[in-house]
Amino acid sequence: MPLLRAAGAEVHAVTLTGVGERAHLMSPTIDLNTHIQDVIGLIEAEELSRVVLVGHSYAGMVITGVADRLLRERPGCLAHLVYLDAALPYPGDSWSSHHSEETKAARIASAQASGGLHFPPPDAKLFGLDGADRDWVNRRQTPQPFRLYQQPLPFDGEAVAQLPRTFIDCTSPALATIAPSRERVRREPGWQLIEMATGHDPMVSDPQGLSRHLLTVWGQAK
Questions:
Q1: Per-residue pLDDT tens digits for 185-212
Q2: Which of 31, 75, 123, 165 counts the highest number of beta carbons within 10 A?
Q3: β-strands 51-56, 191-196: how paired?
């Protein structure tokens, strides 16, 4: 965020309920709608307009749901959607819909061990991080609420597809669970595709490069 703000962009980072510094709010009632409302609540509280909405990883689900609601309730509020190495749902998909059976089974088993409450984050080495960066991310990652993992997201796919959309594909190493998204944006029209030769957490592994790309999108949206 400092790099974006230094370039003059107004930036807001939403911490979703139950994770990060809001991990103390972990609850079995947290679902995808909770996280969609987290984002909409910030947009409304800050009275934002012409928003470039960025969703990383699972948050591709969140920004899709936010876009669906705001297109109906506040047309013109959103200027651009950026899917940062993110889940890219079809209407009715859940976050788990395009994961391998092995991944699904592992996450379900982990959630069952917590009483159905949450499942743990992966080791940051899967994101191509090592040394101090890996340690830093591992210290700060928190479990993910489980209820949202298999929750379907109904939305108007045609309406959301009318918004300008960018997919940032982090290719080195490429995270396996993002493969369906990166394949989809290459076969469907309407996507701006950006490739970054870095891992799943470019905000850690290449913050300067990521900031340049986001500022380019911001410039297009102004």
A1: 999 999 999 999 999 999 999 999 999 9
A2: 165
A3: unpaired
